[in-house]
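Reminder: ligand-aware prediction takes two inputs, not one.
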Amino acid sequence: MSASTPSPPAGDRSAPAIHLRPARDADVAAIVPLLLRLKRLNEEFDPLLKVRDDAEAQARETVRGQLADPKAVVLVAEGSGADREKVVGFVRAVVRERPFYTPQFEGVIVDIYLLPLYRRRGVGEYLLAEVSSALKAKGAGVVTAEFPAQNEIAVRFYAKRGFRPVTSIHARPL
Ligand SMILES: CC(C)(COP(=O)(O)OP(=O)(O)OC[C@H]1O[C@@H](n2cnc3c(N)ncnc32)[C@H](O)[C@@H]1OP(=O)(O)O)[C@@H](O)C(=O)NCCC(=O)NCCS
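Here is what comes back for the chain with coenzyme A:
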């Protein structure tokens, strides 16, 4: 996963050079704003995903905790050119036990986010492939993704890579 440029997809879209690597403590400050952008995007899809006032502090604590958690995977994508060594995207995932089903462990992708300039060029696919390998190496026998049901881009992105709906979460306010 060291210096890495995803294979450009077919067509005239050239993939920007990115460098994908495991996140470290020094990346927390760069990951948090991207994570918040993603949560604010989620908020646009559903009022039940309204972002809390203390989300920034929560994001910092969550990411920090996951960097020390052997069951979590956090990868960052660094850009190229003017964005060299700048974090332009990240993916965050955790391995969870499935007490009643087999495979026993699932790797859950909870966040995947790229700055707009880096989208639609195969970088997301590369992030997905790398996080899937990392989850498999941690024992996951299946990989799943959590995202707002109304996020059609995410639906298409994952469907194109063979993901299908398995369970759904339905909600109503109380
Ligand atoms: C989801 C995301 C990581 C995908 O990364 P990406 O680099 O753009 O994806 P890729 O280039 O590898 O794959 C593109 C495929 O994803 C889907 N897709 C991505 N953007 C799309 C868009 N604006 N409209 C429709 N489909 C889209 C399509 O299937 C597309 O394939 P196509 O270009 O052949 O039509 C990126 O779009 C992103 O950061 N989005 C905002 C955050 C988000 O919604 N995250 C997912 C929920 S957690």
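The chain has a mean pLDDT of 92. The chain is about 30% helix and 20% strand. We will return to this case in the review session.
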